[in-house]
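agent> Task received from the user: take the single chain below, predict its 3D structure, and emit C-alpha cells. No templates, no multimer pairing.
agent> Plan: (1) validate residues, (2) run structure prediction, (3) serialize to C-alpha cells, (4) report one or two observations.
agent> Step 1 OK, no nonstandard residues flagged.
tool_call: predict_structure(input=
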Amino acid sequence: MATDQQNFEQPSAGAADWDSSINGNFGILEFGYRARGQAGGDINTGDILTVGADGFSRQFDPNSEDIYPHLLSISALSSGDEANFIAFGSVRSLGIFTNVVAGGPVYVSVLTPGMVVSSYSGANRNVGIAHYDDGFVFQPNGVPQFPETLVDVASIDTVNGSLHLFQMDMGRAGWNRNVGIIGDSGDLTMLRMFSNSERLDSQILFSTISGGVNAISNHLDQAGWPFFNTDPSTYSGLIYGELTTMSLSVESDFVGVTLTMERYR
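)
tool_result: status=success, residues=265
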C-alpha cells in the first residue's frame, strides 16, 4: 500500500520482507517544490516531464520546439496514475542519475525522451546542474551558461561546375562568428549554409556572393549571423552546407570550409 501524498510504500502487517518496501522508498531522494499531477503515459523514476494542454504529464521530448520541460518524476507511474512531481529542487539517486558529472550541466537526451544526460552530444535542453556524481539541482528553465565556442572544418575535393553537400555538427542553436573558405586552387566557389537538410532558399542562413569567392587564400567572412536547426529528424544538431564550384573555374582542387560558432544549445 502506498501513502496518498508521498507515494511511500508501507509494508503489510506481518510481512516477512517488510524491509524491501521500506528500502524501495529511497530509490530517489529529493527536496524542493512539488506539484500534483497525473501521468499521461508510462513514466520512469527520474524522468523529465512536460505538462500538456490536457493537463497530463508525459516524458519530455527535447526535439520538439513547441513544448517545455516542467517537472521531474520521483516514482515510476503508469498512464492515469496520480502522483507528486518535483517542480524545482534537488534530487539524488545511486541507481538512476549515474550519467551526470558533479559541477557540470544536465541535459535531456534526444534519443531517450525524459532521460537526463551530462554530454551535450545527442542532447538538448539544459535542465540543471549536477552537485554530485549521482544527483543534480533540477531547474526546468536551465542554468545560465556562457556559450561554448566550437570550430569545425569540412574538407571537400572540388570538381569544376559541381555542387557538393556537407554537414557540420554545431548544435541546435547558436551564433556564427565567422566563416572561412580556404584552399590551394584558383577556383571560384559559392558557399551557402542552411538550417535544414532540405536546403531550400527559405532556409538559408548564410551565402557568399553569387559569383563565388576565390579560395586560393583564406577568405574570411566575419559577418555574424544566428544559427538554428529546423530539421525535425536531426538529433545532434547539424548545420547544412552547399558548396558550388563555378563552371568558369580554372582549376579543380581542395577547398575547406571552417565555421566558428558560439553554441547556446
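agent> Step 4: summary for the user.
Confidence is low (pLDDT under 50) at residues 1-6.
agent> Done.
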